[in-house]
Amino acid sequence: MSLFILNMDKTIEKIVSLCKRRGIIFQSSDIYGGFSAVYDYGPLGIELKNNISQLWWKEMTQVHENIVGLDSGILMHPKIWEASGHVDAFNDPLVDCKQCKARYRADEFAEDVSSLNWEEIQCPKCGTTGNLTEPRQFNLMFKTHVGPVEETGTEAYLRPETAQGIYVNYQLVQGAMRMKVPFGIAQIGKAFRNEIVARNFIFRTREFEQMEMQYFVKPGSDDDSMQEWKEKRLRFYQEQLGINQSKIRFHEHGENELAHYAKEAWDIEYEFPFGWSEIEGIHNRTDFDLRRHEEFSGKNLSYFDQPNNERFLPYIIETSAGLNRMLLTVLADAYWEDEENNRVVLKLHPRLAPIKAVVCPLVKKDGLPEKARQIMDMLKPHFKVLYDQQGSIGKRYYRQDEAGTPFGITVDHQSIEDNTVTLRHRDTMVQDRVSIDQIQSAIQDKM
Ligand code: GAP
Question: Which pTM value belongs to this model?
């Protein structure tokens, strides 16, 4: 077992190993011993991740006529991060153990760390007391240099959130698309944070993807809009991702938890095997960001409301989800040890499953592979299917149960006679006899 999964919950450990076995997620730089807090997505992982992000994109930019998309650069003018407050305030308090050199985020010990006496706290790793240092502030942004020479004035940052790319483009988008307040801009993209401690697999990593939507509203209507987006976002987890309702809840940020930009903030939390933790934040950022960008850029960023003949700086309601955390939520929610049948199943919703069906000839002769290939050709243009003729049929099914494939299509001798196949359902293992020309619609109905 590698260092990176030390301290992991047992179920998460099992998910980590399933992800490696089935080509979902690999630790970065594996052949070099790994690179901490970065993960690579394998053939099934990228399909699953794309399915999740496409659902989010559709929900935002297709279902909502007044939300449009954007793809801004990871590198931006460094002044943006001064204006946003990240240079001064994007810090995590860091605590070191003088004895064993373990390093912690101070907020792992208590939500409100100001009341703690660090002299009295035991180091969770070596168990000694009195060796933890007072918290030091540690900026989470990754610095880099732009241009061939590393000197002052060439410093830039890898963005720690995608939101700022939206704020600095908001007037261009509004003008080009003739958007009227309220309207939103959605973006999916990488973000980078030099996290002090990376734990729990893909939950907290140094490189991750965010799916953020910034909703520009008239000041005064922000509280109602906040309520509306809280409800919409919760519904997404239940209705689109099919997450178990009892494992999802809201948590409101108290005064000590609020980010420097927020007037009000709610987290959507999931009950992971390691406890309740945030998957998405919904924030009322007021006009903080636009006001700061006005100040630092010298540009007027107000919006002109033509019907009312007035100018104002919109307030912003932000919905900010981590794509990787959403994927971990989906995996944790789907992971099922079916003890009765001695198998592990990823009960992924067919809409999310990386592969929708496996097509198996029962034996490698008697024309069955050719018939199975015809079915592959028929289904391929519509959704992702896999051909498998290796090993016993039971083994083939179990491999796909672990990969979350919801359907198994088996071509047997009867198929040659009457053009029917068996359609196996992953969760119940029930097998129906279905006419070949009905398979596509039978599967698509479930998606
Ligand atoms: N623009 C607001 C913002 O970035 P945040 O609460 O810092 O707010 C939003 O982050 C979401 O991004 C989180 O709810 C989480 O899903 C994801 N996220 C943040 N840091 C992360 C990390 N180190 N690894 C994986 N996901 C992360």
Answer: 0.92
